[in-house]
Specification:
alpha/beta; Aminopeptidase; Aminopeptidase i, Domain 2; 2 domains; 5-stranded mixed sheet; globular; disordered N terminus
Length: about 450
């Protein structure tokens, strides 16, 4: 297995058939690495998905335009979210949907509205903590800057400074002698502000710099959504290079797998469902936004698809009643140094295939019906499946799954790839698990 490819190869998804494990040749994971490297922010991730859909013949449509019931692939973009779907020949207004849901955002540090800060001869950037990152993993790491700029005329411009620009310096051990015994304690306000220069406070300096990087005039910038990112490229790791180490595996891994699966399903014939990819923003902060799973975006797209094909409310109700959503997010592989933190009978292994995530308190949406659907997809694709349940003594995370199920009244099942170091600036998965997930998702799309 070579290093992650610098160019973007064709996405490869090979269905293996019942009990025949799909062949892994590294190309899918190479492309995942390239996808992650090109997607330092949710806005860049959406662009990366859109480029792949464009190459596959999908057409972007605007929410403000009238939609038609034509067959083929379509997608809409709203900020850091994208929803794509494929209508096959013969699809009726009441044809159910098969949805793969994921999210484009990851925990990180985000630039404040007044970003220029500093003291004692150091120029710094004021940042706000986004989501629930492992703060210590952002220390002493080469960081870039990425996101979007909003211009005076309402246009947006993506920007990515993908080179060492910022650093959050850790206090030397000589000035904190007990850190290795008592543990590192970080104040989110005082200790996480990165440095990026020397000198006195330079009011307006960051936006002037970003404007130059983006090729726009500073006075044209009236708003921004900027964040820092790890500039170390994704890499294969291990004696036999059987791991992938990368930033933002949670959850760009699932976004990429869902994209590959949708493109693969679009090449199939006789689809009994309308396959949909919904990649939302703001999952890490609760999904309550116009681009989050708690917002109206997905429901609007599904309903408009039904109505564009000549349907009425009754057809919409019938389509939703037969719809199933797979909420694809990363999960926890058993940690070799902390096995006691896992349920003793549910310890997913890296390299063992996707996991089915279950929580009876509805932190995950999986029930017996959803399990049967995903198990059938894995069987058809020849992909092994594992189960994850939290240790009863540990709190359980959540996903877009319960939100999607409750908001739209559709059967939803939570799945994902098991990883280590979740919410670290750099996470770790088995190199072939993303490929296995993509195969299972394509089989799910195809019914």
């Amino acid at each position: 297995m070579g290093s992650p490819a610098s160019r973007r190869p064709t996405l490869i998804v090979i269905l293996g058939g019942m009990n025949a494990r799909p062949r892994f040749d590294g190309e899918h994971t190479d492309d995942l690495a390239a996808f992650i490297a090109a997607s330092p922010s949710p806005y860049h991730a959406v662009t990366s998905v859109a480029e792949r859909l464009d190459d596959a013949g999908f057409v972007r449509v605007a929410e403000t335009d009238a939609w038609t019931g034509e067959t083929g692939g379509r997608y809409v973009v709203r900020g850091g979210a994208i929803v794509a779907w494929f209508v096959a020949d013969g699809a009726r207004p009441e044809t159910p949907f098969r949805i793969v849901g994921a999210h484009t955002d990851s925990p990180n540090l985000r630039v404040k509205p007044r970003p220029d800060s500093g003291a004692y001869g150091w120029r710094q950037i004021a940042v706000e903590i986004y989501g629930g990152p492992l703060l210590n993993t952002w220390l002493d790491r080469d960081l870039g800057l990425s996101g979007r700029l909003v211009l005076r005329n309402g246009d947006t411009r993506l920007v990515a400074v993908d080179r060492p620009l910022l650093r959050v310096p850790q206090l030397a051990v000589h000035l904190d002698r007990s850190v290795n015994e008592k543990g590192l304690v970080l104040d989110r306000q005082r200790h996480m502000q990165p440095v990026w220069g020397l000198g006195d406070l330079d009011e307006g300096g960051l936006i002037r710099f970003v404007a130059e990087e983006a090729g726009v005039e500073t006075p044209e910038i009236v708003g921004w959504d900027l964040m820092v990112h790890d500039v170390q490229a994704p890499a294969y790791l291990g004696r036999d290079r059987e791991f992938l180490a990368a930033p933002r595996l949670d959850n760009q891994l699932s976004v990429h797998a869902g994209t590959a699966a949708l493109i693969g399903a679009a090449d199939s014939s006789g689809l009994p469902y309308v396959p949909v990819l919904a990649a939302f923003d703001h999952e890490e902060t609760g999904s309550e936004s116009d681009t989050g799973a708690g917002g109206p975006l997905l429901g609007n797209v599904l309903e408009r698809s039904v109505f564009a094909r000549g349907g009425a409310y009754e057809d919409r109700a019938r389509a939703f009643a037969g719809t199933v959503c797979v909420s694809a997010d990363t999960g926890h592989a058993v940690h070799p140094n902390y096995p006691e933190r896992h349920d003793p009978t549910h310890r997913p292994m890296a390299g063992g295939g996707p996991i089915l995530k279950v929580n009876v308190n509805q932190r995950y949406a999986t029930d017996g019906v959803g399990r049967a659907v995903f198990a059938a997809a894995c069987d058809r694709a020849g992909v092994p499946m594992q189960e994850f349940v939290s240790n009863n003594a540990m709190p359980c995370g959540t996903t877009i799954g319960p939100i999607t199920a409750a908001r739209h009244g559709i059967t939803t099942v939570d799945v994902g790839v098991p990883i280590l170091s979740m919410h670290s600036a750099r996470e770790l998965s088995a190199a072939d698990d993303p490929f296995l997930l993509a195969n299972a998702l394509q089989a799910f799309f195809e019914g």
